[in-house]
Structures are given as structure tokens and as C-alpha cells.
Write a structure and sequence with these properties.
Layout: H1 22-34, H2 37-45, H3 78-88, H4 101-106
């Protein structure tokens, strides 16, 4: 039995109140952006070269040089992104249903 199910256990956590922490949402969004085709396109466009100083990415042994993709305008709306993820993807279990793949395609 899971300790969350044991109401006599001092540290019992009600399952209904369990939410994904904001930090996990932000981490998942960052991972998504790191693997995006848009990032790859930006790297190719710049020929894997820093657009400020001209240093080129290198993987040569002993001379590793990294380049990173940066949002020019920054990501200023993290709160809005997290709110949208919670509203549309991580909604309350009452708003979710379990379906087989065939029925899910038909919805």
C-alpha cells in the first residue's frame, strides 16, 4: 500500500491535491525548446557560429567550443505559459477520461 493511501500515516498526501510543480513544467518546456527544429534551423542558419563574436562551434578533442541558441526577446511570459499548460494539458483528473487507442482516435 502506498503511504499516500494511508490516512493514519502522519505524512499522508491527499492524491486530489497533488499537482505537478511549476519547476517541472518549466524544465519540460526548456527540454522541448532545446530539441526543437527551430533551434536546429537557427544553428544551421548561423553555420554553428556565434553571431556576436564569430567563434565557431568545435568538437575537436582538447578544443571543444560550444555555441548556444538564445531568444532575442527572451521568455518573459513564463507565468502565462505555465498557466496554459495547467489549463489545457495538466487539468484536474475530473476533466480527463481513459480511452483505448481506437476510441481516442474517434473523439
Amino acid at each position: 500500500m502506498d503511504r499516500r493511501d494511508n490516512v493514519k500515516y502522519k505524512g499522508a498526501i491527499p492524491r486530489a491535491n497533488k499537482m505537478t510543480p511549476n519547476r517541472k513544467i518549466v524544465a519540460a518546456l526548456r527540454r522541448l525548446s532545446l530539441r526543437s527544429s527551430e533551434k536546429t534551423e537557427a544553428l544551421k542558419r548561423a553555420k554553428y557560429t556565434c553571431e556576436h563574436c564569430g567563434v565557431k562551434r568545435s568538437r575537436a578533442k582538447g578544443a571543444v567550443q560550444k555555441v548556444e541558441v538564445h531568444h532575442k526577446k527572451g521568455v518573459l511570459n513564463w507565468d502565462e505559459l505555465i498557466k496554459a499548460v495547467r489549463l489545457y494539458l495538466l487539468c484536474s483528473p475530473e476533466h480527463l477520461e481513459v480511452l483505448c487507442p481506437t476510441c481516442h482516435k474517434g473523439v
